Amino acid sequence: MAAISAAMVMKLRKMSGQGMMDCKKALQEADGDIEQAMDSLRKKGLATLAKRAERDTTEGLVVCKSSQDGKTAVLATLCCETDFVAKSDGFVAAAKTLSDYALVCPAEEGAENILETVVDGKKFSDVLTETVSKTGEKTQVGDYARYQLDGPGLISTYIHFNEKVGTMVQIETSDDNVAAADVLKQTACDIAMHITATKPLALNKDEIDSEIIEREKNIFAEQVKNKPANITDKIVEGKMRKFFAENCLLDQLFVKDDSKSVEQVLAEAAKQAGGEATIKRCVRFEVG
After folding, report:
1. Do 95 and 139 fall into the same domain?
2. CATH number for the domain that contains residue 288
3. Residue 276 pLDDT
4. How confident is the prediction along the chain (288 residues), in pLDDT tens digits per residue?
5. Separation in Å, CA 2 to CA 7, 24, 48
6. Is 60 among the domain residues?
7. Which pairs from 7-13 meet CB under 8 Å and 24+ separation?
8. Residue 168 near residue 145, CB atoms below 8 Å
9. Spatial distance between the Cα atoms of 86 and 174, rounded to a whole number of angstroms
10. Is residue 73 located within the same domain as residue 170?
11. Per residue in 118-129, is it b (16+ CB within 10 Å) or e — as a string?
12. Overall number of domains in the chain
């Protein structure tokens, strides 16, 4: 059997991020072959993944990243089993790496697409396996979305201080000067924060699933079934208006100024910037 030196153990530890004893054992089993030992540690991670496949991953981090030109941005979640692991250096590093992979992923959504994305010759699925072998916990990509501008506009992201919830919003503008204005950039950031806090169901009522609308109408109708028939429809109609105002982003009262709707706040900011702006789409991810 080849002699296992401290230098070999340290080299493998640096490569794998594993503990000293795990590295030494892997080297001993591989008769000093570092590459074979590395494969052994990776297999350990795969075995852990398989063993804990049914475990819940209710902890983790939300991450985001934008391209240098600001025309592309991503939002994603990396999930694990415990908050202790979510705060560990190895997991935090893996979450940061996830945002790098997400930015170059060719698909606009779907966690499975990130797993197959390659950076510097390595798939993210390999990064994930290495992370599992370090933490001993089931770890997986939860949600993923990538937005890309196809005209004048900007993409803003916001991650709450606990890093467990975040939002990405894409705004279209009448021209590039409006998108570049500080007032619109700040408003876009504020709207992303607003979405994080209020959890809107959709941009407007036309985008809310018809089944949800019908369910709410039925609930409201049941609540007033003992009222006179000639006023029940009006009551239900009023309750639905309130429902839309509370759940449609554009109609929601802005969290930083509840005298205005989100739509009004954006329109005023765009006017100050010398043009017009509309929200094209948004997404909100939360861990847990």
Report:
1. yes
2. 3.30.479.20
3. 98
4. 567 777 777 776 666 555 567 777 777 877 778 777 777 766 665 445 545 555 667 899 999 999 999 999 999 999 999 999 999 999 999 999 999 999 999 999 888 899 999 999 999 988 988 888 788 788 899 999 999 999 999 999 999 999 999 999 999 999 999 999 999 999 999 999 999 999 999 999 999 988 988 898 888 888 887 888 778 888 888 898 999 999 999 999 999 999 999 999 999 999 999 999 999 999 999 998
5. 14, 12, 28
6. yes
7. 8/32, 8/34, 12/37, 12/38, 12/41
8. yes
9. 41
10. no
11. eeeeeebbebbb
12. 4
d(CA 84, CA 1): 39
Cα(167)–Cα(192) distance, integer angstroms: 6
Same structural domain for residues 275 and 287?
Answer: yes
DSSP 3-state of 141:
strand
60 shares a domain with 120: yes
Domain range for 144: 56-148
Determine, yes or no, domain membership for 252: no
Is 43 among the domain residues?
A: yes
What number of CA atoms fall less than 13 Å from residue 274's CA on the CB side? 8
Q: Are 130 and 40 in contact (CB under 8 A)?
A: no
Residue 255 forms part of a structural domain: no
Structure tokens at 273: 């910037």
pTM: 0.78
Q: Which long-range contacts (CB under 8 A, 24 or more apart) does 29-38 make?
A: 31/1, 31/2, 32/1, 32/2, 32/3, 32/4, 32/8, 34/8, 37/12, 38/12
Nearest one of 152, 157, 160 to 168, comparing CA atoms = 157
